[in-house]
Each structure stands twice: as structure tokens, then as C-alpha cells.
Structure to design on (584 residues):
């Protein structure tokens, strides 16, 4: 069995599982946020009317809550959703609630690793499609809707069809100025937005071992854009060190069998990779940055679970140090812990000296919710994960997806720019 | 199950156009329905009727896990979406929440069924009859668990073996 199959077998009490088997897996961790939380509360209200007991949830210690999509509260409805969420965690005894304005808080997927909420080998589900991100720590991490999350909260388990696994063997090391974001855009460009549908996308090879944990998180994050059920990396000492410094204990390293089956194996030479953008209106619509259209950009957005981890901000600072931005540029660190490190290490000063506005952690404009959404005909380069019509605002706005380095270099020139070509 | 078809002849209809992100804070199902398909077809709300079906291409519902997407369609009156393929979270949300039927179709149904056609979906025989054109197409059968959850009326009514 490969790692995904091993985790699902263990969680469902089976000795062996195969692709297409349907299992009911016991869940180790579950996450809701300020969009899926109120959705789950609504499901609970419906169930109560049907006579189903919703007075208790299965295990409050395995549940954690983030406030990220509409904080700071965009309007009355979002403010009320936050109050609903607070009442929910109070009533059900959920202690791990990361609240806006009370110390550590941030984008749910970022907290999953910054706060070591999930460990290798665990089944982790969340009420958000980019839950896949956390598979980079060696967990089975999968996004679900409100009804399914409500089911998990009440029963502690959920059904899965065991996925086929696509194995991406990454060889060697990414060149300077090329990031994991470029690689995952290249992969999505190659296999398409349906190329990983219903499947596990596993990343391995020497390229993965060279990569930091945060780079692996970027890869797994965007497996969602290929339609995958989960993205996953076999954990190693880097994961152990990463989680240990964030307070985790008893970390076990789980690996697939030597002779494990994969539906298909893809091979990538990391040294041959180049900076990539995904043009409007699909993450699969890729171009090498040096061959990208010469459009006048209106804005550079550096934020989200995909592109505002500490490593991402360090990359941006490398470009912006001693330079000025030519277009509106926003940087929204993905969690308060990252914001604080950026302050302590002088990154915020570099950003502010460059003319950038630094905002609070939020999903904000990435999902077109608030805080910097795009107007009609505005063109944005963004470190986020989707560029469907209207994703970041007006349906006639345009988003180019890129790495933090490309977004920063483009902020300096006002055009889509390969960081290697900056003067 | 009979109804008329609203056809979107394209692939990758994503959750951002089914229900744009700015409405995710809304959890009133009727209000959500008033914004259904707003990112693609601003006339959807005025033309959709109770019992209608949507017909579309590959990877319907790709993108976010927002259950708002099947909810907005279902509360607009849509009883089934027929598509060449579905994105996974939309598919399971539609089934587990018992909002609407996701029907996987073949190319002949996709090309031959036109906007406004009246069709009859027969899930027990895995067939779709086009009453307007007097044609019959096959639908892909539901997998065992999906069929059982649909028959039960959603995941919460589905009894574990």
C-alpha cells in the first residue's frame, strides 16, 4: 500500500485497502472556519428539526476553528457569523478557536502547520477545499462540505472512496528564483484542472527531500486545483523538526511500502523549471513568465494559504529590498505568527519602504470576499490559487497566478516579470 | 423525473460562478438562490423554474468546497445537474446533503439535448429520455454507495452496515 492507502486502512480498521474501496474512516482532526462553521451550524439546526440529537459533538478536543474568510468583519452579516462561531465553540466546549484580535489567528490551512494542529499519519478533514495543503505533513488531508463536516462532528467518521494515486517524482533541486509555486503551476498545466480528479497526488523523489516543508505545503495546496482528493508527501526529519519546534510530540514517520502501487508516475527535473504564470481564467492556462503577455498590471496581491507563508514573504523581501513598487501592492501575511516573524526580522520595514500596504491575515480578496477585491477590467498578479472569472472581484477582472518572487518582481515593473530579469 | 433543460455548453463551470465568493457569508438558502449562477448567467434567476435541470460539460462544480453551490441551485428549483463529469466536492455535497442529483452523461446526451428540451431521467434504468426529440440516452450508473445514500435521502439518513 502507498501512504494514502495505509492511512485510510489504519483509520478504518482494515488490514488492507485498494483504490475504489469505500471505507468509513475515523477522523483524527476536523477544522471549520467562518464560512463552513455557520454552514455546519445551519445543518445542525436542520437536523434538530428532524429529531436528530445535536446537543453534543463527538470529541471537542479534535476540533479546531479558524476565522479567516471575512475577518476583519466586512459587514454586519460577517460580524454575526463570527458571533455564531464563538457561541458554537463555547456551547460545544471547543477550546482551539483562533480568534481575530486575540493573539495567534490566520488562514486555517496556515494554522494547520504553524500551530502543528495535524501530524503525519492522521486523517484530517476541513470545511474548505484547500484542506489538501496539510498533506505536506504526511497526513491524509481532505476538504469536505458542510453536511459532511457536520456528520464528522457528530459521528467522528466519514466515508471515503480510496483514491488512485498519481506519483510525481521530482528530481534534483529547483534553480534560484524558481519556487514550488512555479512547479505546481507547471504540473497543473500538464495534467489539467481535472487531471487529478478524485485521486491522491503524491510528491516524492530527491526534489521533495531538497524542498522545505513550506514549499511542500505549496505543492499540496494546489492539488485542489487539479481536482485531487488529497495531496501528500511522505514525512521525513524535516517535518519532524518543523512540527517539534511548534510544540508537537509523538510524531511517527509513516511511509508507503517499497512495492506500493501508483496509477501513474510522472517525472520532473527540478533544475529545468522556470518561473510560470497561470493566465486568466484557469490555473491550467500556464505560460513561462518570459513568454507571458505584456499587459499593464493594476495590482500585485501577495497573500493566501498558497503564497503568504514566512518563506514566501522572505522571497518577496529579497526582491523588494531597496526597490519601490510601481503598482498597488498588498502583502497579507497568512497568520499572526508569520506577521510577527516578518516584523522581528525586518521584512515589514522592507515592504513599507517599498511602498507596499501590509494588511492583517485574511483570505480577503483571494476569494473575492473583501479587502482589496478587483474592479471591472482590473488586472492583478497574485500569489493565490484560483483565477476563475470573478474569483477576486468583478467578473470582468483578470488574475494571473504566480510565485511570490514573480508577484514581487512584477510589482516593481508593473508588468509580468521574471525575477531574473530585474535590473 | 421530468423537467426542462437549461444548457451551458462549456467545461469547468466552477463554484465561483455558481455562487460568487462575496455571498459565502450568507446562509439563508432563499437569498443564496437569488444569486445562483450570477458569475456566468445573470438571467438565470429569472428564467429558472421549479423542476428544471442544468446540462453542462466536464468538471462541473470545480473549485471550492462551498456547499452554497448545490444549495443555491437546489433552492432555485434545479433537481438535477447533468454533466460529462463532476468535481469531487460538488458531487459529494449534492449527494450527501440530498440537494440535487448529479447525473453523469455521455457525449450523445450532451450534444443532442438542447436548451429548453423536456427530458425524463429514469435513475432505476439509467436512461434519459428526450421527450422533445424522441431520443434515449444512457446515464452512467451511480456507484453502490452513492446510489444507497441517494436512496436513503442523504448521508444522515443512510444507515451504516
Amino acid at each position: 500500500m502507498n501512504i494514502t492507502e495505509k492511512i485510510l486502512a489504519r483509520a478504518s480498521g482494515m488490514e488492507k485497502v485498494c483504490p475504489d474501496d469505500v471505507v468509513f474512516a475515523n477522523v483524527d482532526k476536523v477544522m471549520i472556519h467562518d464560512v463552513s462553521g455557520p454552514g455546519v451550524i445551519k445543518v445542525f439546526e436542520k437536523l434538530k428539526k428532524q429529531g436528530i440529537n445535536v446537543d453534543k459533538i463527538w470529541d471537542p478536543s479534535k476540533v479546531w476553528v479558524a476565522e479567516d474568510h471575512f475577518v476583519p468583519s466586512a459587514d454586519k452579516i460577517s460580524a454575526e457569523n463570527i458571533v455564531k462561531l464563538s457561541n458554537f465553540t463555547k456551547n460545544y466546549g471547543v477550546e482551539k478557536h483562533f480568534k481575530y484580535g486575540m493573539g495567534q489567528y490566520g488562514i486555517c490551512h496556515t494554522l494547520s502547520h504553524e500551530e502543528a494542529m495535524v501530524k503525519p499519519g492522521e486523517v484530517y478533514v476541513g470545511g474548505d477545499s484547500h484542506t489538501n495543503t496539510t498533506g505536506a505533513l504526511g497526513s491524509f488531508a481532505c476538504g469536505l462540505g458542510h453536511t459532511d463536516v457536520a456528520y464528522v462532528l457528530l459521528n467522528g467518521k466519514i466515508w471515503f472512496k480510496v483514491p488512485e494515486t498519481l506519483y510525481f517524482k521530482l528530481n534534483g533541486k529547483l534553480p534560484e528564483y524558481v519556487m514550488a509555486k512555479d512547479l505546481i503551476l507547471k504540473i497543473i498545466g500538464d495534467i489539467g484542472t481535472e487531471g487529478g480528479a478524485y485521486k491522491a497526488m503524491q510528491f516524492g523523489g530527491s526534489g521533495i527531500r531538497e524542498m522545505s516543508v513550506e514549499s511542500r505545503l505549496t505543492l499540496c495546496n494546489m492539488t485542489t486545483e487539479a481536482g485531487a482528493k488529497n495531496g501528500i508527501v511522505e514525512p521525513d526529519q524535516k517535518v519532524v523538526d518543523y512540527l517539534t519546534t511548534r510544540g508537537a510530540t509523538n510524531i511517527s514517520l509513516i511511509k508507503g511500502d517499497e512495492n506500493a502501487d501508483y496509477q501513474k508516475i510522472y517525472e520532473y527535473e527540478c533544475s529545468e523549471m522556470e518561473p510560470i504564470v497561470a493566465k486568466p481564467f484557469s490555473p491550467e492556462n500556464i505560460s513561462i513568465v518570459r513568454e507571458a503577455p505584456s499587459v499593464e498590471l493594476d495590482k500585485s496581491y501577495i497573500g493566501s494559504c498558497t503564497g503568504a507563508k514566512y518563506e514566501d514573504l522572505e522571497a518577496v523581501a529579497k526582491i523588494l529590498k531597496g526597490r519601490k513598487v510601481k503598482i498597488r501592492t498588498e502583502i497579507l501575511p497568512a497568520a499572526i505568527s508569520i506577521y510577527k516573524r516578518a516584523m522581528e526580522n525586518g521584512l515589514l520595514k522592507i515592504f513599507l519602504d517599498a511602498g507596499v500596504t501590509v494588511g492583517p491575515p485574511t483570505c480577503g480578496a483571494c476569494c473575492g470576499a473583501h479587502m482589496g477585491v478587483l474592479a471591472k477590467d482590473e488586472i492583478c498578479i497574485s500569489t493565490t490559487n484560483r483565477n476563475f472569472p470573478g474569483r477576486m472581484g468583478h467578473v470582468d477582472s483578470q488574475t494571473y497566478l504566480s510565485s511570490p518572487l514573480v508577484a514581487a518582481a512584477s510589482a516593481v515593473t508593473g508588468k509580468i516579470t521574471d525575477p531574473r530579469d530585474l535590473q | 423525473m421530468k423537467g426542462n433543460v437549461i444548457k451551458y455548453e462549456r467545461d469547468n463551470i466552477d463554484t465561483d460562478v455558481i455562487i460568487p465568493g462575496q455571498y459565502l457569508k450568507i446562509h439563508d438558502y432563499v437569498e443564496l438562490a437569488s444569486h445562483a449562477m450570477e458569475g456566468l448567467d445573470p438571467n438565470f434567476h429569472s428564467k429558472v423554474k421549479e423542476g428544471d435541470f442544468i446540462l453542462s460539460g466536464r468538471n462541473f462544480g470545480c473549485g471550492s468546497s462551498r456547499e452554497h453551490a448545490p444549495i443555491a441551485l437546489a433552492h432555485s428549483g434545479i433537481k438535477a445537474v447533468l454533466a460529462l463529469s463532476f468535481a469531487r466536492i460538488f458531487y459529494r455535497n449534492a449527494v450527501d446533503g440530498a440537494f440535487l442529483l448529479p447525473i453523469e452523461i455521455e457525449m450523445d446526451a450532451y450534444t443532442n439535448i438542447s436548451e429548453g428540451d423536456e427530458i425524463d431521467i429514469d435513475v432505476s434504468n439509467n436512461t434519459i429520455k428526450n421527450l422533445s426529440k424522441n431520443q434515449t440516452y444512457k446515464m452512467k450508473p451511480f456507484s453502490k454507495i452513492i446510489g444507497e445514500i441517494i436512496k436513503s435521502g442523504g448521508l444522515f439518513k443512510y444507515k451504516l452496515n
